[in-house]
Every structure is written in C-alpha cells, then in structure tokens.
Amino acid sequence: MFPVLLFAQENDTEQDSTSIKYLIIKGDSVPRTSIDLREVKLLHKLRFGNKKERIRYIVLRRKTLKVYPYAKMAAERLDSMNRHLVTLKRTREKKRYTKHIQKYIEGEFSDELKKLTRTEGQILIKLIHRQTGTTAFDLVKELRSGWRAFWYNTTASMFDISLKRTFDPVNVEEDYLIEDILLRSFQSGRLERQESAVDFDFFDLTNKWLGTKSP
C-alpha cells in the first residue's frame, strides 16, 4: 500500500507548468505581460446624400487641413510660453518674453496667414479654441501686449470675424464635420495628432448628426 500512497501524493502536488513571458521595456524596470496601445477609433463610412454635400465636405477638408497646423502651433506656443512665464517673477521680464514670442511667430507665419481666405480664417479661429480650450479673444485679452498685434492684424481685421467664436461640434454641424476630418487625417497620418482641449464624445455626436443628416 505504501507505494500507492506515494503516487497519490505526487498527483495532489502537481504544478502548472505553463510559462509566462514578461516584457522588459527600456526605462521601465517593472516586468509587464502586455503593452498599452493608443486607442483606435473606428470611424463610420462616409456617405453623402447628394453631390452638393460631397463637394461641401471635400472643400471643408481642404481648408481644415490647411489651417490646422497653425492652430496646433498656437497651442504648442501657448503651452510653452505659459510654462516659461511661471518661472519669471518680474512683469518687465514677462512682457519682454511675450514680445519675443510675438515677433518669432509673426516672422515665421504671418506671411502665410495673410494668404488665408475668410472661411479659412473662420476655421482657424475655431481650431484655436479646439486646441487651446481658449478663444482667440481671451488669448488676446490674457496676453495683451504679447499677441494682440498678431491676432488682430493677421486674423480678425483681415477676415472680419469674431475672435470669440468657439469650436462646438455638439451644436454646429460644420464643427462636427471638421472633427470628423481631423480624426480621419490623424489615423491616416496626414496630420500629426493633437488632442482636443474641448470635451465632447465624438461617437455620441455621430449618432446625433447621422440621425438627422448624413455628412
């Protein structure tokens, strides 16, 4: 009976021999069993009710692709400037720095911005709000001497548009279409992704707008 008892004891203590592979990522000392991937949004297939709607979308896409880099640049410069301004204590130093940023932006982009059409300027104002979470008007008000000349001279006075305009895809269909264009361009690699500073759920909006009118 003794050998039989030993055999039974061996079965009871049998271990799971399945091996687990860990990933050691450079700069991360903690072993991980998976890699975090960026969320991929599955966009709906484009459908147009008629030729006019299709042309409208194509024209809007061309204009959006043209002005988005400027809005992205504005968000990056604003973030960089705010982080640097925190380190400055004197008002004179802050004014000097914002003036330096103004001259840099005007020298690099003002000639290109002057070539924008009125509708492209309107889209730019909306995208500035999307990328920064702040209207162009509030940016001018907040930064005053730093960017006042830049925004007024190259945007508002040229296009006769409101600097208070916001990016509102919840209530404005054109803004929803602009967001659709941006997301598709991000996924295709045509534009460099920069997350929206404005909070909304694109898929909820898709259900809303597609329920009334296909883009």
Describe this structure in words.
The protein has 215 residues and is an all-alpha fold. 60% of the residues lie in helices and 0% in strands. It starts with a helix and ends in a 5-residue tail after the last helix. The model is unreliable at 1-14 (pLDDT under 50).
Number of strands: 0
Low-confidence stretches: 1-14
| N-end to C-end Cα span | 81 Å
Q: Would you list the SSEs in sequence order as H and E?
A: HHHHHHHH
Strand count, sense and closure of the main sheet?
none
Shape: elongated
How much β-strand is present in the residues? under 5%
Bin the helical content. 55-70%
Helix/strand-derived category reads: mainly alpha
Radius of gyration: 27 Å
Number of helices: 8
Kindly state the mean pLDDT as a whole number?
A: 76
Topology (elements, then pairings):
Elements: H1 2-12, H2 51-85, H3 91-113, H4 118-132, H5 136-143, H6 148-159, H7 173-188, H8 202-210
Helix pairs in contact: 2-3, 2-4, 2-7, 3-6, 4-6, 7-8
Salient structural properties:
215 residues; elongated; disordered N terminus; mainly alpha
Task: Produce a short descriptive summary.
With 215 residues, the protein is mainly alpha-helical.
